[in-house]
Write a structure and sequence with these properties.
With 190 residues, this protein is mostly helical. Helix content is 50%, strand content 0%. Helix 1 crosses helix 3 and helix 6 packs across helix 7. The longest helix has 19 residues.
Length: 190
């Protein structure tokens, strides 16, 4: 959830608390605030047990970041140095897998690829996908191969002759082999 979404959710919870204080029941609170009844009842329970403070936000959900603020600052510096400075010379892109490896090497903390992606977004970076193209690719040779060799080795497609299939009309039992199921179900038409 975005920061704006969290703020709106907190405002709505505080409005709900005000309505509960006025004696308005959860179904009507849900209708007035355009939230689910389930949310209204959960908020009502929290409000009843702990007052308005119980409905206050506790900050963003999810697990805590496993890197300290100081380590996060160092990570930003490492990312700004580029992949080549840390041993990836093939291309100059930070993939999420590389960032997860870098975090493991520098901070001895294990991050999954998806966790590294979320962390990169939090830090203002976006993971990149490296282009899988050979550095010494000969475009003329590729074009010649496509024109000459590919047409020879390519399997032919379906024949151009007419074929049909129909889901709306069942096949006639007369056309089935005698030992097939349903072969004698109907007499052949003349």
């Amino acid at each position: 959830m975005t920061a704006a979404g969290r703020e709106r959710r907190e405002v709505v919870r505080m409005q709900a608390a005000g309505l509960f204080e006025q004696g308005i029941k959860p179904p009507e609170v849900a209708q007035r605030l355009r939230v689910s009844r389930k949310s209204a009842y959960q908020w009502y329970q929290l409000w009843r047990d702990g007052g308005v403070r119980a409905l206050a936000s506790r900050g963003p959900g999810g697990s805590r970041c496993r890197l300290s603020p100081r380590c996060l600052e160092k990570l930003v510096v490492y990312l700004e140095q580029g992949p080549a400075a840390h041993g990836w010379v093939e291309d100059q892109v930070w993939t999420a897998a590389r960032v997860a490896t870098l975090i493991g090497r520098k901070f001895h903390v294990s991050y999954s690829v998806s966790g590294a992606t979320r962390l990169m977004h939090r830090l203002g970076f976006s993971p990149q996908v490296p282009a899988r193209r050979v550095a010494e690719r000969d475009e003329r040779a590729v074009a010649v191969w496509k024109e000459a060799t590919w047409t020879e080795v390519k399997e032919p497609g379906r024949p151009a002759e007419g074929t049909s299939a129909s889901r709306t009309r069942q096949a006639s039992p007369a056309g089935r082999p005698k030992h097939a199921p349903g072969a004698g179900a109907a007499a052949p038409r003349s």
